[in-house]
Amino acid sequence: SQLLGARMIIGSDKMKENINKKILRPLIYQRKELYIKRMIKEVRSRNENAVGCNDRCNIKEAMGGIRDIEAVALMIKVDLGSHRSIDQRFFKHNIKKFPKLSKELQTLHDTAYLLRTVRNLYRITEAAEDEIQRDQLRNMSELVGRNSLRRKLSDHIYKDIKTSLKSSATAVEKIMKYLEKQLS
User: Fold this and answer.
1) Going by C-beta distance under 8 Å and a sequence separation of 6 or more, which residues neighbour residue 60?
2) Collapsing DSSP states into helix, strand and coil, what is residue 132?
3) pLDDT exceeding 70 applies to what percent of the chain?
4) Exposed, middle or buried: residue 60 (CB in 10 Å: 0-12, 13-18, 19+)?
5) DSSP readout, 6-64?
6) How many Cβ atoms from other residues are within 10 Å of residue 48's Cβ?
7) Percent of the chain residues past pLDDT 90, beyond the cut
């Protein structure tokens, strides 16, 4: 999974092709059923113990969070046998390849954007953590609003996070069921 998600920073095309030829193709792409089934099992197992979002929310580990979204991206990448990097446009780029999942892929695109933006702003204004605390969103909301709007904006941002996570979790499950059915 680490290699599937990695992007070439330095190295040559020859090195990239060797990684694809000697590692990714034989161990993952040619055994995609095994990889995808294991990833689905991991996501579901992790989500059995997921903690809900009340006054604080771990946007990476929550159901439908960043980790689930990235896991689905890896499953899709393997299913397609793609060597395309997983970037901000990954889900939008693959909507045409999975027309039955267009709504779900759009949801993951939108949720990934929201969660990464919130995480980046939170890290700048509060702490380098994936756990977002509702009462600490006021400082972040200062970046986007006047004093009179801070509380309203911070509550709105937190509500958006929770709503997006719920939609994302539903989309993740639908995509996993679709992939399971395709593998059967």
Assistant:
1) 66, 67, 119, 130
2) strand
3) 90
4) middle
5) ---SSS-HHHHHHHIIIIIHHHTGGGHHHHHHHHHHHHHHHHHTPPP-SSEEETTTSTT
6) 7
7) 56
Measured between alpha carbons, how far is residue 116 from residues 29, 67, 83, 84, 96 in Å?
28, 11, 23, 20, 24
Residue type at position 9: I
Contact indicator for 48, 64 with CB cutoff of 8 Å: no
Q: Is the pLDDT of residue 147 over 70?
A: no
Say what the pTM is.
0.89
Tokens of 113: 């954007």
Q: In the predicted model, what is the mean pLDDT of residues 91-120?
A: 94
Task: Categorise residue 84: left if φ over 0, alpha if ψ from -120 to 50, beta otherwise.
Answer: beta
Our measurement of the distance from residue 82's CA atom to the centroid of its chain's CA atoms, rounded to an integer in Å, reads 17
How far is 160 from 166, CA to CA, in rounded Å? 10
Q: Is the pLDDT of residue 164 over 70?
A: yes
| Cα dihedral 56, 59, 63, 66 in deg (nearest 10) | 180
What distance in Å separates the CA atoms of residue 25 and residue 156, rounded to the nearest whole number?
45
